[in-house]
Amino acid sequence: MFESLSERLGGVFDRLTKAGALSEADVDAALREVRTALLEADVSLNVARDFIKAVKTRATGQAVTKSVTPGQQVVKIVHDELIAVLAGEGQADALKIDNPPSTILMVGLQGSGKTTTTAKLAKRLKEKNNKRVLLASLDTNRPAAMEQLAILAGQIGVDSLPIVKGETAVQIAKRAKTQASFGGYDVLFLDTAGRMHIDEVLMDEIQSVRDIAQPRETLLVVDGLTGQDAVNVATEFNDKVGISGVVLTRMDGDGRGGAALSMRAVTGKPIRFVGMGEKMDALETFDPDRVAGRILGMGDIVALVEKARETFEAEQSERMARRFQKGLFNLNDLRMQLEQMLKMGGMQSIMGMLPGMGGMAKAAEKAGFDDKMLKRQIALIQSMTKKERANPDLLQASRKRRIAKGAGLEVSELNRLLKQHQQMAEMMKKMGKGGMMKQAIAQMMGTKGSGGGPAGMPDLKNMDPAQLEEAAKAMKSGMGGLGASLPKSLGGMSSLPSGLSGMFKKK
Q1: What's the rounded Cα separation, in Å, for the pair 449 and 262?
Q2: pTM of the predicted model as reported, rounded to 2 decimal places
Q3: Which domain range does residue 448 map to?
């Protein structure tokens, strides 16, 4: 999401920040490029025009052009205006689920991902908010639509309304409301039917369901890949039905992201969530501050910490923490680190969340530093015996040939892996002696501060949002030098999973 826009804006702002003193003509030229970049990213013309006008008003005053760091001041202004364009009222994930059962009406065109998104939101409310959820499909047109929602409900462990053939959407909505009330459910999701295009029949049906259901939330699900048309769809639904928020799907496949920038500005409704894949947990809260940071290459440290918190297992984390503090790091530890990186979305995903690293992610991929490399390295470690993984010094020529052959790879690749492990092990020893390891593990692994974990380490698993922000800030401040070259940047990041930090150290 936003890769092309981020890349274009990164080039513009690099030139601005290196230019030193700026004239108004310099700012004008830069903003023309910004406008072109926005339009190429599928941002609505009116939104792009208003955005540039707002930035120009703030960026051409003497306070900026006569500033000590004018380029950085312009970047900050663009960042602030991006947040203003993207922000809605209230917290993005604060769905109105008071006075149960709260009804959430899901609307959108056919193929936008409504049914999958309904299941994702239900899973989120069940696991993160401990809510009892009931799902009901009102789609009487699409073949097997009801069965699809029932299957997804079973997969995520929530209830679905029993299917009764021949009922209309309004009849199903009435029955769902009754079952939600008598069944003691906290939230009822009504997954409505869609069409290939907006028509009167679709709108009439949704309006009838809305009048019966009296939903607390009406969420419009829009395919982000449709670009400009997504904004038109949102406007139509908002005018005819009235929506309370938007969920953008397939944003993992859209390098432009213009729909996200245009949606809130045009409809006035907040973007609540973005779908980043087909998996049931591939749903992210749309946070304007963090999204603006990603667009401008500032990274998203909070998201990185959240991913680490969600994917690390507490018991495994504590065991690794104790080993790392002693400066111990064998090939079993390296394998767990590499597997952890894949769980967190892979190398490109992690690098995209790091400040200053967005533009380097593609360069790293071209150089062969990608998820395929991680999987090859895991395969090499799995081809070893338990003794060899615990004691890499045993690996002489004959053993290396056997291991490489077992993984279907060359001995040279195994040698690179062993050298990488050696460098990382040395780094672990230094950090363990210097006390840096304790802070790094605390920030990334979510280990406990008491009752089984090293003393004084925060429990990221149970942090509230404010505490999580603080952990992210601490992590960010400890990274230092992220604008430097790729090997130097990643080699010195103690706060990253060591599999990533050591991987780019100079061979």
Answers
A1: 44
A2: 0.62
A3: 301-503
